[in-house]
Design a protein that fits this description.
The chain has two domains: 31-191, no CATH class; 194-323, no CATH class. It contains 13 helices and eight strands. The model is unreliable at 14-25 (pLDDT under 50). Helix 2 crosses helix 7 (146-158), helix 9 (197-207) crosses helix 13 (297-307) and helix 11 crosses helix 13 (297-307). With 323 residues, the chain is mainly α. Helices cover 37% and strands 7% of the residues.
Length: 323
């Protein structure tokens, strides 16, 4: 019996050592996406214009990295605090940890190189080599055109510096270990000709990470067959709002929508000063309508063209319910 007990003890020790070794490797050696590129992005009027459009109206960089007024419908951002961060994700909204969105203005990024910014945006690795949880949709940005990414970097550099700092983010166990394995090397894409509305629409949908919010997931993995079919829950106030089915299903998606109706739906939110007050128990949305409404009609038409090609998925969504 003593011999058997020793064997079990040795096995237990071996397993513990292996686990410690794996954890040490994951936390110390990963992520490993390579060093940042040695680049210097020239700031030009063209890049500033394109970068502002992408960062605010398409890719949502400044939607996440700006303060919101959630007492109003759609949570309009504070345009006087663009890029200052501060939005919180914690157990109160169903997030496994405590994350405060960082300040994106030059106050916080003045020591970052352009290569480090590009690496963070496209691979999910910070300046210090640590991993960025894909709450920031870098897996989608990793397929954007290099020139569009340069434009975003140029625009971010032009933001008014705002002196705001926040506590370091913390993820719950075991996510705080798993996150080290998430970053991946980028595979940059090419922006299609805007005249090719189908391909350009797909590019815009990718750049806006529409799929991420409009798909249900299980611990971060999108449920197969339900991509773009909506139903992902978001806790807002005293209720839960769910993303819309944007597949081409006629009954539960946008299959019955016209292009004109689709564009009009966005353009209805072209003035955030008109955002109405909402109570904690009222219907609310996390869809950044006030920002997306400023997309050009041509870009919205391209998005519509692409979405209409998606496989119809029948998935009726209850848009809002109280907890």
């Amino acid at each position: 019996m003593k011999k058997v007990a020793k064997i079990f003890a040795y096995v237990a020790i071996f397993v513990v050592v292996v686990i410690i070794g794996i954890v040490a490797y994951v936390t110390l050696a990963l992520p490993n996406v390579g060093p940042p590129e040695n680049i210097k992005v020239e700031i030009t009027p063209q890049r500033l214009e394109r970068g502002k459009y992408l960062a605010i109206n398409v890719s949502g960089c400044l939607d996440c990295h700006s303060a919101h007024d959630w007492t109003k419908f759609g949570g309009p951002i504070d345009t006087n605090q663009l890029g200052s961060g501060g939005e919180k994700f914690d157990a109160g909204v169903g997030f496994p940890g405590n994350v405060t969105v960082p300040n994106l203005t030059p106050h916080n990024l003045k020591n970052w190189t352009d290569g480090e910014l590009l690496r963070a945006i496209t691979t999910g690795v910070k300046r210090d080599g640590s991993a960025i949880f894909p709450l920031m949709p870098w897996p989608y940005y990793s397929k954007m055109d290099r020139e569009d990414l340069y434009s975003i970097i140029a625009y971010i550099r032009s933001l008014k510096p705002i002196d705001k700092d926040y506590p370091k983010s913390k993820l719950d166990f075991p996510l705080n270990i798993i996150v080290h394995t998430m970053p991946q090397k980028a595979t940059l894409g090419k922006k299609p000709d805007t005249k090719d509305t189908l391909k350009y629409g797909k590019y815009l949908v990718q750049s806006a990470a529409c799929k991420e919010c409009h798909s249900q997931d299980n611990k971060g993995t999108l449920l197969p067959g339900l991509e773009f079919a909506g139903g992902r829950p978001f806790k807002v106030g005293a209720g839960t709002v769910r993303s819309t089915n944007i597949t081409s299903d006629v009954k539960t998606g946008i299959g019955g929508w016209t292009k004109e109706g689709f564009i009009a739906r966005f353009k209805a939110y072209n003035d955030q000063s008109k955002a109405q007050k909402v109570g904690v128990s009222d219907f609310q949305t996390v869809m950044p309508w006030w920002n997306f409404s400023k997309m050009s009609e041509g870009d919205l038409a391209s998005i519509y063209t692409y979405l209409k090609t998606l496989k119809p998925v029948k998935n009726a969504v209850v848009k809002f319910s109280l907890k």
